[in-house]
Amino acid sequence: MNNLKNLRGTIDLLPDQLIKWQNVEKILLEQLARASIKEIRTPILEMTELFIRGIGEGTDVVSKEMYTFLDRGERSCTLRPEGTASVARALIQNGLSSNLQKLWYMGPMFRYERPQAGRQRQFHQLGVEFIGYDSVRSDVEIIALAWDILGKLGIKELNLEINTLGDLNDRLNFQKSFLEWLEINKNSLDLDSQNRITKNPLRILDSKNIQTQKALENAPRLFNFLSEESHKRYSDLKKNLEVLKIPYVENFNLVRGLDYYTHTAFEITSGALGSQATVCGGGRYDDLIKQMGGPNTPAIGFAIGLERLILLAGKELEIPRNTDIYIINQGLIAESLAMDLSRKLRNYDLLVELDLSGASFSKQFKKANKLKSKSVIVIGDDEAVNGEFIIRLFDRSVNENEEEVISFGNDINLEKWINNNLLIKRCS
Ligand code: ATP
Ligand code: MG
Q1: Which residue CA neighbors atom 11 of ligand 1 most closely?
Q2: 165 C-alpha to center of ligand 2: Å?
Q3: Ligand 1 atom, smallest distance to 258 CA
Q4: What global pTM score does this model have?
Q5: pLDDT in tens, 293-347
Q6: What is the CATH topology of the domain spanning 321-427?
Q7: By CB distance 3.0 to 4.6 Å, which of 105, 122, 180, 379 could disulfide with 10?
Q8: Residue spans in the chain of domains classed CATH 3.30.930.10
Q9: Is there a contact between 170 and 222 (Cβ–Cβ < 8 Å)?
């Protein structure tokens, strides 16, 4: 029989790798809480129609990348490829879309793509959505938030690219002359882009093909079709970013992969990532909620790819927290006492490991050493019978050990000694 393996593009995150994930997630959650952003959790599985309507049929995500299947009731279901459409649906369905809200979500997303470094079929995103906000200041806050989150994780070589896509009207005006240009210049484009002319012409701007990029230099610019209002919005955005000293680069070809964006679009890339350089993508989507059947609700958001974030985050986040107390124990009475003691110690902010091996004391000591435990508690039946245990504190910096014998009588009165005991001072 063949060995069973995971599906291509999915990975197992093993305990050692998860230390970094957990440290990164902890910082993310702290930053989000400090910015008063609340969590929302939506199902991973949705009706396929949600993404077709929400993201747009001509997009890569919908046309090529979705995990879609019929369930046993013959309903077409899709594993979510992104979070915004689901959040919009949930808000409409729960009658919440007209409230002002700042929301975040985090979890797995699924896209059928060619796996490579920083690109998987099951990957993870942190997304933030500001719902009901239409002022330029909300665009600025969302960009600043993404920028600061990445900064808080110590990520270097960050570049912020911004663009404006105008509103629907601006885009229609632009599209007319862009389509004329495309018809004339069709043959200078790569095949993929040629196919997009009828399906999703705006996406051609985003093509990575060098020949197409070169040809596009002479194409009409969306920027020149913006209304006065859209222009003002964009220049206000830039002014505000300058006030906050957040450096940006304008990229007129930045259109983002999903259909629902309006006005502000942005991406944050890192030079340290190689070819899959975008760690964060976001933008304004003022028409999405209305298009999906909800009230007219402006909104803006971003998503950070966690795999790429983990690749970028510093090595110091890979270091596990050391064990504070390792409980070495052997013998019938000692073992039940040790169990009791470990439960009590876990009421404090201590990382306590109870040795369950039943191995010799020396083996247990070795294990405690390997874990660099800051202290050990030793309980053998001799000690247990005498109503005491031994605590040994290791001061690794000076290579010194201290030993203390603790008597507990009938009950282990931890409260009494733990608060003024060296143990806590050393371990914290
Ligand atoms: P890309 O151009 O890299 O395909 P995208 O425009 O499709 O990105 P978005 O839909 O904007 O990506 O998603 C936001 C972020 O999620 C990306 O910037 C990236 O960090 C991450 N991401 C997207 N697709 C994947 C994937 N298949 N594997 C890992 N991370 C991904
Ligand atoms: Mg993509």
Answers
A1: 281
A2: 19
A3: 10
A4: 0.89
A5: 999 999 999 999 999 999 999 999 999 988 988 999 999 989 988 998 898 888 8
A6: Rossmann fold (3.40.50)
A7: 122
A8: 15-167+227-316
A9: yes
